[in-house]
Specification:
The chain is mainly beta. It has one helix spanning 78-89, and strands at 19-25, 28-33, 62-66, 71-75, 93-98, 102-105, 115-116, 120-124. The two termini are 19 Å apart.
């Protein structure tokens, strides 16, 4: 694994063992260390949370059927939907998942709990 250079005056780096990834698959909710998550096929996982929808909402949530996955993939804005459409046409993309995992670390307890991972998980051909 490559070493990262710290920025002078920046926060100290947390040890990689302090990070945990939670995801939902056919076996239910799973929690693994960050290094073990490298082998998880996130494109096959379910979203870790629901997409909010309420009266007066200023953005549009929905689902888009993708030929890449042969399934619906969620989005939370027009911008996300447009990027999803573009990804679906990219021949190098072989998997797409929406809200595939939560990432948390020991120090997250002090800043409000676990953080959501990326909005999209992409799997590209090698």
């Amino acid at each position: 694994m490559p070493e990262l250079e710290l920025v002078l005056g920046g926060a100290p780096a947390a040890p990689i063992e302090a990070f945990e990834v939670a995801f939902a698959n056919d076996d239910g909710e799973q929690r693994v260390e960050l290094t073990a998550a490298l082998s998880v096929p996130f494109e096959a996982c379910r979203p870790v949370r629901e997409f909010a929808s309420y009266k007066g909402q200023r953005h549009l949530s929905g689902q888009w059927w993708t030929a890449t996955t042969g399934s619906l993939v969620g989005y939370e804005s027009w911008l996300e939907r447009d990027r999803l459409v573009l990804l679906d046409f990219d021949p190098d993309v072989v998997g797409i998942a929406s809200q595939p995992f939560w990432r948390s670390a020991e120090h997250d307890q002090h800043v409000g709990g676990p953080h959501l991972g990326p909005n999209r998980q992409l799997t590209l051909t090698a």
